[in-house]
Amino acid sequence: MVALPTTPAKPGIVRDTTAGASLTGERWILSPAALGTFLAGLPAPMALGPITVDGGEQVLGFHCDPDSARSGADITRYGSWTDYLARPSDEER
User: How many domains does the chain have?
Assistant: First the structure.
């Protein structure tokens, strides 16, 4: 997981088959119409696609392309976007 250099800040998730980590996220339930509206407003470099959750189930989830992720800071150690945002303000960003 990376903190993308966007305004506002956004998390970027890229699958890493060699050094991957389990991340905590949220599960949203949307109607097909609501999903379409959501996707229409989704800013680059965010994308939706299949992700594998703990237990092996594939669901639709956020990710970003590897090129965009290279511009962000690696924040995988926090385990979730909310934990990253909650870190002490004097901690390295």
Answer: 1
The Cα–Cα gap between 50 and 31 comes to 17
Digit-coded pLDDT (tens) for 73-93 = 999 999 999 999 999 876 655
Residues 44-64: tens digit of each pLDDT: 888 888 888 888 889 888 888
Using an 8 Å Cβ cutoff, are 63 and 51 in contact? yes
Q: How far apart are the first and last CA of the chain?
A: 13
Model pTM?
A: 0.79
Cα–Cα distance measured from residue 6 to residue 10, given in angstroms and rounded to the nearest whole number? 6
Give the sign of the dihedral formed by CA 68, CA 69, CA 70, CA 71: positive
Tell me the CATH number at 75: 3.10.490.10
Give the residue from 49, 64, 86, 61 showing the smallest Cα distance to 5. Answer: 64
Range of the domain at 81: 2-85
